Amino acid sequence: MADKQDAPTAAVVVDPDGMVSGWSEGGRLLLGWTAEDTVGRPVTDLLVGPPPPRFPEGYGAGSTGFIPLRHRDGSTVDAVVTAHPLLGPDGRALGHAMTVQRWGSRPVIADRAFEQSPFALGVYDPELRFLWINASSGRVIAHSEEQVLGRKYREVLPEFDRSLFPERDDKPYTDKLAEVARTGEPARLITVFRPRGSNYANAWATSIWPVRDAEGRVRAVANWGFDMSAEYWARQRLLILNKASGGIGQTLTVIGTAQELARTPVPGFVDLVSVDLFDEVLRGEEPPSVSAFTPGETIGLSRAAQHSAKDDTDPAPGLTTPVAHTPGSVAARCMATGRSTVELAAEPGQGGEWAFGPGLAADPAHWPPGNPVIDESIAADGLTGRITVPLRARGALLGVVAFSRLDRPEAFTADDLILAEELTAKAAVAIDNARRYSRERTTALTLQRSLLPQRLPNHEAVEVASRYLPGGTGTEVGGDWFDVIPLSGARVALVVGDVVGHGLHASASMGRLRTAVRTLADVDLPPDELLTHLDDLVLHLAGDLQPTGHFQPTGESGATCLYTVYDPVSRHFTLASAGHPLPLIISPDGTRPPVPVHPGPPLGIGGLPFEATEVELPEGSLLALYTDGLVESRERDVDQRIAELQRALNHSVTSLEALCDTVMDAMLPERRTDDAALLLGRTHALARHHVADWDIEPDTAQVPRARKFAVDQVDAWGLEEAAFVTELVVSELVTNAIRYGEPPIRLRLIRDTSLICEVSDASNTAPHLRRARAFDEGGRGLLLVAQLTQGWGTRHATNGKTIWCAQTLPQPEPH
Q1: What is the pLDDT of residues 457-491, one digit of tens each?
Q2: What pLDDT, in 10s, does the model give residues 237-287?
Q3: What pairing do the DSSP bridges indicate for beta strands 492-499 and 479-486?
Q4: Which of 56, 135, 319, 415 is 20 to 30 Å from 199 at the Cα level?
């Protein structure tokens, strides 16, 4: 027998003549008729109106129909009828067995499941009048089902008729409900709102969908949601930390970095930040030791930065204000103990319970010992809470930072303390770096450093070693120099040069030229164009050496230079010479292929072109770049000396350092009249599977395909952590090339010590990094690329340009 508390189901047996021959208790519960009332009567007597065609035969074989039935009290019951034919042992029809259920009915246990769901559930008519809510929804909106049934959503919850964050252009939740009712399209969103009686904004993940009848018409709107505040606010904290990672430490000045720290968490986290530093830190000196302060002594600092949500203007750069932290003050105690302190103006919550915000702070055990502290005196300063954190880096105390909230009701949580300490730790390292940089810069201005590189950079494309020997005793310092410069696209430049003459002017000119070459190399000029610019520079240097009123320069001018570029992807070696000896190339098999290029004129003559030549090198080729001091001799001509140098270059020697020593010993006499430089390199080729490229049609529809190509390739290389940034920069660079460049367009990814992304097109127009204004629709792409990657730039060629960017990859730990 059916449970009277459940939705009843009637079972009816109908004989072949359409007469009722069996009736269940469920029939009485559903329609009010007893077995005595129905058995022996036509089944059509139970129908309201004429019977449907072929009833009940037409509802046989398990088919289902919707039929209005007559209740004993005269009302109509919309029922779902299912008929099954009954057969005897000989296959003769014995009638039908029919099951009848009320349309729309469901078991009571289902109602209880929805009612007891921990998720907030609600159903509303198209005019957004409440039809039903469960208990969880009632708790969220602080209303019972009886209080809201039949009332409009906007009337019950007017706070949902406006956005909690209008600055984000968030659509009010009520408007979203109405939109689903109007369009019939479901929606998913995150809703942030402050429940009634709460000081904290909650974040809810919600879904809204239309409820349709059998004809597909929208008859109602339903929604469900769950509280994801912990996850949401954790994400907001991560966003602030991410902002800090990209925004703190950009200026390399102590005060500038302090101002970056003060601006970063306002207003998303706090309303006021002040940064106080020791004067020694501001001057670039070592900060004083904490042990140097005696108990009871006032600690004097300078306010290096302060930023408020009410007044977002920063103090003038370099302007600081003395600040004295008296004995026993929170700041003095934090600096002495090295521990942070959280102050709250009043104890939140009711009934003596803490009204913690979402996250770890829901458990007071997550607070460190001694926190939080209730200090009603901070309310006199207009504060509802303050977190004071000592500013420490590399074991040194640099100052103290205060994060304050003004007027907002949210009390600080244990998670907020963690965030404040993370922000301070990031800023402390950046401030200490700026302090050290300031000290080093001051030292560099008073100390003349060596003009030659003290150590060549490690590069995957070329293994290098070098030697420089000055002239013998009594010879002035010369202007020989060399350099190894990493370039974009995993390439490397090998450079040697020689300034005419000796002495101070030659050394100064050499320093200028080496700096100029590095500067020109940074903009990725081809070798012949770089030498052209360098030639102009030498002409200007000659003018600088010409004193006023004299026709003869006080020092010699002119120089030679050999600039080469090796590409490990294509194994192409490109070179151009301005009056400098050409490099020697020795293949792995010991052969010495000629270099088909003629040196151009020395630098400083002007008006004459330079020629660039490109050759393909086998992997493992030995390169020797040198100055004329290595091969010049009074006893032998230059060709003989170059032949001697080739014999000394034993390509089978494994160590380039040892080979450098061998060559210098063999080529240089004990008494030298000129300085000499030697730069050896052994080439390496980048594995083909570490390079991926793709031709792109000049259509913005290709951008999603380019992103997928990049992400798939990065994943194939096992660099999943770099996929997000790679997808973003590929999208920006490819979109710019399609919009502003010219075909053909090509995307190339290179996995080297860094992950390199290059987009090439046939246009010679160079992009410019600029800061977009607040209402600009574009102009942020390259700024985004610059912030997300560790380097970017433009490389021009004869048939277009290449925009590149590089992401640093984690280096494997040495075994």
Answers
A1: 778 889 999 887 765 433 445 677 889 999 988 89
A2: 888 888 888 888 888 789 989 999 999 888 888 899 999 999 999 988 888
A3: antiparallel
A4: 135
